Amino acid sequence: MVKPFHAVAAVLLLLSACGTKPADVGDLNTTEVTFPNGQKVVAETMLRDIDQMRGMMFRDALAKDRGMLFVHPADGNYAYWMYQVRIPLDIIWMDHQRRIVEISANTPPCPSKAAHECPSFGGHEKARYVLELAGGGAAMYGLKVGDNVSF
User: Fold this and answer.
1) Cα–Cα distance measured from residue 1 to residue 78, given in angstroms and rounded to the nearest whole number
2) d(CA 2, CA 38)
3) CA atoms 57, 52, 25, 133: torsion sign
4) How confident is the model at residue 27 (pLDDT cuts 50, 70, 90)?
5) Are 146 and 99 in contact (CB under 8 A)?
6) For the chain, which terminal residue's Cβ has fewer other Cβ atoms within 10 angstroms, N or C?
7) H/E element holding 140?
């Protein structure tokens, strides 16, 4: 029987011998998103309901080259809200072909109000994917309704 420590050491030795670097925790569950102008962001990918509900809550910043990508199981009208979000965000809805169908630019945070006092945004068009960028990101990347995004 191999002892757990020896098994872990063997795996690490094999990885280092192959020149393969183990992934950073920050690299897990991310998707590289490419915009029509060729610029890219790395987006945390939210697949589970619990992760989608939490989203950007309680975060104080979002780097300009980062985002959060929500993947819904089916096309639908998904309104988003900013409850306990502390920074303005650009919210970008895309259909199943990854075509932008709606943008809410500089969506204001709702950090301290009661949940029922925070308004909802978007959800007027059928979408499968929703990308959140730091406020001003859609303009910075030149995004507009009708553009196709790759990921």
Assistant:
1) 52
2) 49
3) negative
4) low
5) yes
6) N
7) helix 137-140
Q: Can you tell me the distance from the alpha carbon of 90 to that of 133, in angstroms, rounded to the nearest whole number?
A: 5
CATH no. of 23-140: 2.60.120.1140
CA atoms within 13 A on the CB side of 149: 32
Q: Flag whether pLDDT at 144 surpasses 80.
A: yes
What is the C-alpha separation between 96 and 139, in angstroms, rounded? Answer: 23
Question: Residue 119 is encoded by which pair of tokens?
Answer: 């308004």
How far apart CA 136 and CA 6 sit, in angstroms, is 50
Round to whole Å and give the CA distance between 41 and 13.
Answer: 32
Distance of alpha carbon 85 from alpha carbon 59, whole angstroms: 7
* Tokens coding 92: 């970008």
H-run or E-run covering 100: strand 100-107
**Could you give the CA distance from residue 27 to residue 87 in angstroms, rounded to a whole number?**
23
Report residue 96: phi and psi, to 5°.
-65, -15
